[in-house]
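Page 37, continued from 36.
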């Protein structure tokens, strides 16, 4: 009796499938975060003096003034089976967590919690 073992190929296919699902989940989360903070407001001033006239309230997602935060939301693989979603802008961290002077305006963690079920569904999609 002869058996062909395809274990290595199966593991390779499984890894590729999971990375594809992880990428899909990260892209989905990025789109939902961007959707949440893409709320325009009237602005005044020019250049560095530009400011929003209807800023977000504490515990509300930040509103758009220039759109830099919106454009900075991205994702990347951070390991074989992990991905990071966020912003590289320092003020994005200040908005998310708050500071001594400013209350938090969470937009990343709150979106992750709101979309947890959909992300789990994406990640648990069956092999084709």
């Amino acid at each position: 009796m002869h058996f062909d073992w395809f274990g290595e190929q199966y593991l390779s296919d499984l890894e590729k499938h999971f990375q594809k699902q992880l990428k899909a989940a990260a892209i989905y989360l990025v789109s939902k975060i961007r959707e949440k903070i893409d709320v325009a407001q009237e602005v005044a001033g020019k250049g560095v003096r530009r400011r929003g006239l209807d800023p977000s309230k504490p515990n509300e997602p930040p509103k758009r003034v220039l759109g830099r935060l919106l454009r900075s939301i991205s994702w990347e693989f951070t390991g074989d089976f992990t991905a990071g979603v966020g912003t590289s802008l320092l003020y994005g961290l200040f908005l998310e967590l708050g500071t001594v002077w400013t209350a938090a305006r969470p937009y990343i963690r709150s979106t992750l919690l709101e979309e947890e079920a959909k992300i789990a569904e994406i990640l648990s999609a069956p092999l084709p």
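The first helix runs from residue 7 to 37. Flag for discussion at group meeting. The two ends are 30 Å apart (CA to CA).
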